[in-house]
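User: I'm putting together a teaching handout on how multi-component assemblies are represented. Below are the sequence lines for each component of a complex, exactly as they appear in our records. Could you produce the 3D structure of the whole assembly as structure tokens, so the students can see both representations side by side? Please keep the chain order the same as the input.
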Amino acid sequence: MTGLLDTIIQGILLGGLYGLFAAGLSLAFGVMRLVNVAHGDFIVLGAFLALYVQRVLNLGSPFTTLVILIPVMFVIGYVIQRLILNPTLGDDILRPVLVTFGLSVIVENVLLQAFSADSQKLQGGSLEITSIALPKGLAVGWFPLTMMAVCVAVIAILQFIMYRTKLGRAFRATSDDGMTAGLMGVNSQHLFAIATGITLATVMVAGVFTGIRASFDPNSGPDRLIFAFESVIIGGLGSLWGTLLGGVLLGVAQGIGARLSPDWQILAGHLAFLVVLMVKPSGLFPKRGD
Amino acid sequence: MSAEKIKVLVQRSTRTSRVATILFVPLVIILVLAPRWLDRGTISMLVEFFFYLALAQLWNLLAGYAGVVSLGQHAFIGLGGYVLFGLCVIAEWHPLLALCVAGVVCAVVAIPVAALVFRLQGAYLAIGTWVIAEVFRLAFSQVTSLGAGSGISLPVSVAQDIPISSLERDTVLYLLSLVLSLFVTFGAYWLLCSRSGLALTAIRDNEGAARSTGVDNLRVKLLIFVATAFGTGLVGALIYLTKFRISPPAAFDINWTSYVIFIVVIGGIGTLEGPIIGTLVFFLLRQYLADLGSWYLIILGAVAVAVMLKMPLGLWGAFSKRFDVHIFPTRRRLAKAEVEGIVVNDKAEAV
Amino acid sequence: MSLLEIRNLSAHYGDFQALYEVDFHAEQGETVAIIGANGAGKSTFLKSISGVVRVKKEAITFNGEAIGGVRSCDVVCKGVALVPEGRRLFTSLSVEENLLMGAYSQKQAGTWTLETVYELFPRLEERRKQGAGTLSGGEQQMVAVGRALMSNPKLLMFDELSLGLAPKIILHIYETLAKIRALGTTMLLVEQDIRQALNVADRVYCFQEGRVSLQGRPQDLTQDQISRAYFGV
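Assistant: Of course. Below is the structure of the complete assembly, with chains in the same order as your input.
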């Protein structure tokens, strides 16, 4: 019983990571109806950038790299959206999907070229090893706890931006009716670029956490994309907190699968996703409308 | 002006298509006889060309016409391959029979897959198909009788079953790949010329408008999804029959989809000629760039992105639009009309 | 010099030409009505001014500046606001948030603020936190007008203000319009309701198949002239 409880707790906390993966995806879709197929690859890019910057600047912790890299990734997101993705937006879904798929291939192979195919890992230091003791002989690592706490904080910040700032108001208005938002003075080209900038900033944070949690290589992107995507679908479109809950469910499903057999971990997650898709395609906690 | 006074001639063929039809027969004859005078390496390359062409036509039919963007068609490549290997290795069937069954199995599996995946829209549907491919890969990695994660080779006895009469094994495989790519290309053409084809072209041009004229979009999409799964499964089975070895990472490799997408995008989505041009360009680029390793894929990706942004109709699409050239004409044009005794041609000039 | 001066304005939707060499002017403080049948080009005309439809730069001069073809997000900064056809409120935003969106382009405060808009439309203050989509047609129209006012425009344009509204509501809206007019705001009204249009306007233009078929002061025009210009007989 303790074993099962432990699995569930680990799964819930893993949901924090998946929620982090998915938050940016959810935001971009909410604002622009854009799904960036390269999303996972950007997470891995973030992990590699953290690795590189930490090495080059001789920093003690990968978290310190965030000070430089969050703004850097924001700028990268802004530029990519402005130059490459904005022209693809419209009614046709073919173009954004194919262009972002092309981006995915480019990012993966640039990383391959720059860093080789070797597996890498970020070192989280003592955070990775220490844990808090809980009753009944359970223990919870500081790292997973931090992961979940940061995820909750990131989502809270995103919610704040969306619902309590002028920028967020503009995001929601543009999502409702882009033409009329333009009549109010909203420059959608610029606004969308900011949205992607914010998305990549969250992706950077996700990258550091996933890089510490497990090893990664240039081809790890698609897996991250799939976890993010499954979290969004399980949780329900349109709600950031729903996405976190979706991530939690995914994490728990994977944990239970891993208990049965290590090979079954990821497959169990996929199956949970497929079940939700079959039974409640709009997700478990969708926002009304959409 | 009464109805009897108007006579019309609706034509599909264009001058280019008539020329192409005449050139086509000698071309096929040359290709059929090719194994006689080409070396193994070239034949091998031709086989690969036919595979990619077939896969590209199928993906194009699904995405460019039915509007279903799939990032997971490699699920059926792998499934087709594994069904073939399963039937040959475990049930000891004749490989050529197993080939046909592989296609059918993929078609049948496509139905529940569609039931799941069609619940999603747009880009999410695309990623959903990718998840399905991953599920297949992980599932087959668990099947120990087929080699689990490391895969399995085709037994020699099966290989010896392939030759037919006086034709060697390699020739048989070559001819099969040629026939398959012709079958797929002309199958797609036939489909597009039919009534369902009109529905497809309508969906390609404007889904909402198509629905309003009574086209049952969902049914058409499902049909095309199942049909392309069948074709993709057939091709996948043949690919791995040719390779004599299959493993989950290879059979369900996303690169199958990446290359096919690049081919269709660069050649021209939504046209039948596009995949042909695209496959040619793909092979040319591979010839000169393959030594560059990951740079090859970076360039391919960058070219595809650039084409999608600047020339979304692709090479053939842009060319065809500019010069109004069609080798596979699917449009029906008003070639001539006689109205109240005056005959006019398709440019509305009196003749 | 007119506040809004339009010369030789032509507008296209792809291959289709919607406006043919239209000449038009509006003076500071005037209320100009634009009438015409469906498809006459009235909406296109307003959209050309607010930058939704691209036209030649010199065709439209506002406040001495050539603004033809300027993007709509930049036009509002110059002092031109449009209340679009069908209201087009942001349904996932509340009433108050819709009004605040109107002030998006504002760098400093002007006459119109949340307080003054609520004074004009007390009903909206009661419903300030409600989702904009839950309001009645008339209330939505009030939000649309208030939203346009929040940008403190020099030129306020209305596209089919009375469309789909009950007569009582239309009267109320037009009473409010009178108050706005009294403050000296220049207004352009595209109206289906000819009677209402002629009632409030200083001058009226009639559009017919993309061209101006008639213009003048309401009192100078006969019923017959208007019918002919409207239907193009």
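A couple of points students might notice: The CA atoms of residues 166 and 172 of chain B lie 10 Å apart. Chain B is about 70% helix and 5% strand.
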